Amino acid sequence: MIPRVRAPELPENYPWLNTDKPLSLKALRGRIIILDFWTYCCINCLHILPDLKYLERKYQEIITVIGVHSGKFDNEKEIENIRQAILRYDIEHPILVDSDFRVWEHYTSKAWPTLMIIDLQGYVIGQFAGEGHLHKIENMIIQILSKIPNHINIQPLKFTLEKQHQTLITPLAFPGKVLATPDGLFIADSGHHRVIMSSLQGEVIQVMGTGKRGVKDGNFQSCEFSAPQGMTYDSDTKSLYIADTENHLLRRIDLPKQIVETIAGTGKQSNIIYPHGGKALEIELNSPWDLVKVGNSLFITMSGNHQIWEMNLLTNTIHSYAGSGAEGCVDGNFQECAFAQPSGITTNGKELFIADSETSSIRGVEISENGKVRTICGSGMLFGFGDVDGVGEDVRLQHCLGVEYFNHQLFIADTYNHKIKLVNLSNGECKTILSGGESWVFYEPSGLSFFGDFLYVCDTNNHVIRRVNLETLEVIIMEFAGLCASGVCSSS
Q1: Domain named Thioredoxin: which ranges (predicted)?
Q2: CATH number of 175-477
Q3: 219, 232, 244, 257: which could form a disulfide with 249 (CB 3.0–4.6 Å)?
Q4: In the chain, ranges of CATH 3.40.30.10 domains
Q5: How does pLDDT run across 37-96, given as a tens digit for each residue?
Q6: pTM over 0.70
Q7: 5-153: what fold?
Q8: Max CA-CA distance within the chain?
């Protein structure tokens, strides 16, 4: 509990989303207000969204949640980009756009996320930085209500939400990752909570998942995912491995048997950051975002605790592989090195290459018991971002989420710069190869995969897969005939 101080009023002339008019604390007097200072790149900010949804639904008559979006990256200061994040993460409370950090400073916020609890009389009575504070906040709410229940403003509050203006009925919704293989193309249709398999030309072969958020093993028609992301494929067993990110699970799809099963995680988010491991189905995971198979191992970017993990598929055990759990960019041995929300992974068989999104850097991790971690390009700093081609530490990327190895080069999805870049591993040179055409631009591309003469790109906020001919740099949008959003039309 902090000293009871008057909450600064919210500015009248700032942009608002998820509401048709600005809100004021004065008008909300008599309600409990939760201000959530967040930025949509931040994994910790995403982790508390279910907590906020729980509170605003359970106590909807007395609580108003207001998100204050104080964006870290330049790209996150644009109103339309924030609107897309609201749609992607199904946020249902009003959002104040605080791109100049004025409200952040008035409330003396120091970290993303920070929650401010404002009582019925308009005083700040609680401040919580980071995640994992749900029970403390709920106890505070219960305590407030037990003392002064007759002062509660129980007027129902309804807001005009962004999803009422822009429904996700496109065939794909915010696809996060794509994987091209000799047996076909796999797409993590993240916004529709399912996985699509098609031919490399776009003929739909399988739709895996009901299209509703959930967690359920079983056949392709009944299984459920929650915002699946990265995938890797075993062509020998015809098995697809998936990072089921928001369920904090790893899943395996047996294509011949058409069965989905959980192979790692409990479904509960881990709050442990120090190195540990054990039986795969007994260890809690923390937002696994991408994965790659090397031999009998899966290597996983565990975004929520800033580490790289390894799962042994023969022993069904899983453990932290590299990273202390601290958020940052530290090279060196596996115990002392640090990552910052690693979100993409690829390999040449000897080294893992990581899109380290919050440091806007590309990292290398040796596949060796006594291996080392290095920074290939990017500033290596949490706030060292931009859009600069160059070599090594002079390169500036902006929240890169995807990386793909090919022929001693790396293709990079430079997500918040809306570009595809190419890194030469021989000298660390990074250059832009694609940013758009005469009538189109990428919009936060997040995943890519190479096969044959083509690079397949998840153009995430455009809700499409683009196929790039690497010889001519011709780009087309792939069409998936018969593929529909859940409930819109029947899928093949």
Answers
A1: 1-146
A2: 2.120.10.30
A3: 244
A4: 5-153
A5: 999 999 999 999 999 999 999 999 899 999 999 999 999 999 999 999 999 999 999 999
A6: yes
A7: Glutaredoxin (3.40.30)
A8: 71
